[in-house]
Design brief:
The structure is a single chain. Strand 1 and strand 2 form a beta hairpin. Helix content is about 65%, strand content about 10%. A three-stranded mixed sheet has the order 1-2-3. The chain has about 300 residues and is mainly alpha-helical. The chain contains nine helices and three strands, in the order H-H-H-H-H-H-H-E-E-H-H-E. The relative contact order is 0.12.
Length: about 300
């Protein structure tokens, strides 16, 4: 058997790898903004927006990796996981606004290409820096992303950055070799097209969390069927599933059980069985059940 475990810097803790990748991405983001101002390249500015998306994604991944270590308190009884959602909301709004501005500016440059002068060589240098930096980030995360879904998401974010940098690089080469300035506007539109669907998807996910909808892929009917299939369970009502943030689902339900379970002092065992069922089959670690004997009348019960 061969040992393919990562060595060197790639063998570090996923949180440290994410932090290093964030540092690289944020640095390139600043370089691209400065490069866009100096060269007049709209594509570099669009790619900086793309990098902003992925920097935010890495920040969210770091929060997700760290938030479990921060205990809840009497004021924040669920902890601080919703901060991730609010950050994602701000990120999505900024990105959509940025893409609208880039789209308007790019179309204006295509309609009147003579009004915009882009310096191809400096643009090429900055794009090359972004390409190399994103390649390094992907290398750092390549091993850890195989075993961590959190790191996997960050890895895909960096992959998107790499593609964006490649688009800018091609546009810079075209401008340098041919002097065709509209290449910059075309590249910026392509990058904006890459950003908008992701920003909209992020916005929809934020609204789903804040609206306390059931997590994507979670079928309440399947959970109800599992609970009803447990020995001693007569009925289930007041079923609620929502999530504090991505990957942190919460479940509550009222479970009607046979009176014999209370008489034989088996209610505690049933409760543990139900919680284990949700954790194993539906990845719900935080579940709350109210056990009720058959015939119990609850005031203001909801179906």
């Amino acid at each position: 058997m061969h040992d393919h475990a990562p060595t060197g810097i790639r063998s570090g803790h996923p949180r440290r790898l994410l932090a290093v990748s964030l540092g690289i991405t944020a640095t390139v983001l600043v370089v691209q903004v400065i490069g866009a101002l100096l060269t007049g390249s709209l594509a570099l500015l669009a790619d900086a927006g793309h990098m902003l998306t992925d920097s935010s994604g890495l920040v969210i991944a770091l929060i997700a990796a760290s938030v479990a270590a921060r205990p809840a308190d009497e004021r924040q009884t669920y902890g601080y996981q919703r901060a991730e959602v609010l950050g994602a909301l701000l990120n999505a709004v900024i990105l959509i606004a940025l893409c609208v501005w880039i789209g308007v500016e790019a179309v204006g440059r295509l309609v009147a290409p003579g009004e915009a002068e882009v310096q191809g060589v400096p643009m090429l240098v900055v794009a090359l820096i972004g390409l190399v930096a994103n390649g390094v980030s992907m290398y750092l995360l390549s091993a850890a992303q195989r075993s961590s879904i959190n790191v996997r998401g960050a890895y895909l974010e960096v992959l998107g950055d790499l593609i964006g940098s490649a688009v800018v690089l091609v546009a810079a080469v075209v401008i340098w070799v041919t002097g065709w300035m509209p290449a910059d506007a075309v590249a910026s539109l392509l990058i904006a097209v890459l950003i908008v669907p992701r920003a909209i998807t992020l916005l929809r996910e934020v609204f789903a969390v804040l609206g306390e909808r059931a997590p994507a892929g979670t079928k309440v009917a399947d959970i109800r069927a599992h609970i009803l299939g447990t020995d001693g369970v007569v009925d289930v009502h007041d079923v609620h599933v929502w999530q504090l943030t991505r990957g942190a689902p919460v479940f509550t339900a009222h479970v009607v059980v046979s009176p014999e379970l209370f008489a034989d002092d088996q209610a505690g065992g049933l409760l543990s069985q139900l919680q284990t069922c949700l954790a194993r089959h539906f990845d719900v670690e935080h579940s709350t059940f109210q056990l009720e004997p058959a015939g119990h009348v609850e005031h203001d019960a909801h179906a």
